[in-house]
Sequence to fold (622 residues):
Amino acid sequence: MGLILLFNAFNGLIQGAFYALMALGLALILGLNNTINFAQGAFMALAAYFAFTLVPYTGFWGALIAAPLLAGVIGFAVETVLVRRLYSRKDPIYTLLLTFGLALIIQDMIRTIWGAQGKPLAIPGFLNHPLSNTYFFLTGYRLFVVAVALIGTGALFAVLRFTRIGIRIRAGNADLETISALGVNIYLLRTANFIIGIVFAGVAGILAAGQLGLNPTMGDALIMPAFVAIVVGGVGSLVGSLLGGLIIGLASGITTAFFPAASEVVIYVIMGIMLVVRPRGLLGQEGLFE
Amino acid sequence: MTMEIASARTAVAKPPAPGLISRRVLGNVALGLVLLAVPFWLPLVGGYTDLASRVLIYALAAMGLNLLLGFTGGLSFGHAAYFGLGAYGVGLMLKYETHSILLALLVGTLVGGIAATLLGPIAVRRRGIYFAMITIAIGQMFYFLAVRWNSLTGGEDGLTGFSRHPIKLPGLTVPMGSVGFFYLVLVCFGACALLLWTVLNSPLGHTFVGIRENYKRLIFLGVRTKRYLAISFAISGFVVALAGGLNALLDNFTSPNTLNYTLSGDFLIIAVLGGMRNFWGPLAGAVIFILVRDYVSSITDNWMTVIGLIFVLSVLFFPLGILGFFNRKSAS
Fold:
């Protein structure tokens, strides 16, 4: 029993790393663009389908890099043409509904172009190989997911910490008006930030597709845990979103060991408890976005 | 307590309309007559009665949501949960317990409404974007419950095996064909509209509007804003649950999709499209939304794109909704 528990906890952590990757992209956009990007799941699916088309030409590794960037290009268009117009509206309902509508459109486009049937995404053979059969059943792919999540997160934090644009993004999160007055083009900054968020979604989408396969609605199931991760971790804190993702992944994994049917519901229960005990989340700032 | 409510009232109350019968009363009477006569004129213009029932049900749900959204300023993206709970409540009652659809509707409304009453206080701990995310997440919890709890809910396939039975009143049996059912929906719609109207024109409703307009100020005035938000949440939950129950009766079926956040999105866009600051806005929104969806899905497979475009365009160009747009036109 102990071993099974350990195994499920480990699996949960891997899942959590994945949730964290998703949540980071969402939290970035939420922070600087003040937008809950409902289309994040659709962008995930879009990048995964781009990868599906690219793999025959570029191989898996090329697709892993090129497809999220392509999704980023679409994200750029969406931000400059649509989302940007709504920054001046205070009520968050408008960006919510806009990105919700966008998600429907992107999903429908995917269905029209690639078909409604599920498809597999080819991943390199050595990643599919089980690493261990004795106690854990573990494929290399799951470790690979963790590695990408770690690299992606590390890169993001390095960018935010050490580069000029990263410093501006952080400053913008703190006080957009002031950095605008100091001469930073905040429209450009927000566009760049939006693209980074979409690229993150794209990477997560390809990773998910390698495991679960492709279908037009694949993003729907994945975006909700990311929301919960942000609420648990606290809005306004990227580290919080990361922690939130890991916690709900872990909880979901452990629950699978005892009561598999509840593995999805448990993350919402955790969120409920967090809201009662500590409404602002683990590392959230009081009163942000309220 | 009385003082701040009095001030809230002066902030929103409109001057009394001149004349004995105001234009507003005339308009409402006309609307009522048009709705009453739907089964007679709708087939003439190529519609069918069930479509009108669907419009009214969605309008009812969106009006319930709009009490919270448009008049109290609480952006809930999870009201489909209470809609779905109402639907499952009605379905399960009819399948296992009773043949009286009125009793089933009562139970369904109570199930959804009580859930909203219990969960509202948790959700209102935060506001704005946060509130929206929390309500979505709570809603999705019910969605996954319905999907996983196969033995009770039928899982992803949905709940079947119940149907509308005629309503037996003492000395009177009302058949529940399309037309009979439409009038049942209309009665529910009318009763809820009256309830919401009464609430909005009471001190309670003025407090709601005050919360929407200036949350902080109401706190300074000593109003327990969270409590009022929770009350608004609960009332809207009851109304939405009733709509959900009616929807289950209309289809003789309900599925986890009636709990999903995409349906919450539909209710929101209906309210926004029609005009969320207008009492009848959601009705106008529902007429447009349901008719367009019905028509477009019959001519193209890409109807989801059209629905998505409705979202995008109405957000960009009609932020005040159709009614808000015309009201402003006529005012200027």
Remarks:
- Residues 160 and 253 of chain B are 5 Å apart (CA to CA).
